[in-house]
Task: structure prediction
Amino acid sequence: MHFTQIRRAQKANLTGFDPKAFVASAGHRTNDPWARREQWRYIGPMSRWNRFKSAFPGLGIATVAFAAYCGYEYLFLKDDHHGHAEGHGEAHH
Result:
């Protein structure tokens, strides 16, 4: 014996709030009760990139200055004593 089911139409939602959509958007709940309190370590000023940038504060400026000096030395400070060892000849034995 089967009981017949009476299907009723859903009631109109006057507020527009859908609890099923709210639960679905909340995401997957983890078992870690401290996860929300640990979030600050990985966002904003404490993110991995910001911590890396502040680890070497003058590295960028120092690299550019060193490269500029190496270029200056290569182009303008040439050694005029190229034949210094050959110039002494056999007179200085």
User: Anything to note?
Assistant: The chain has a mean pLDDT of 78. Residues 21 and 27 are 11 Å apart (CA to CA).
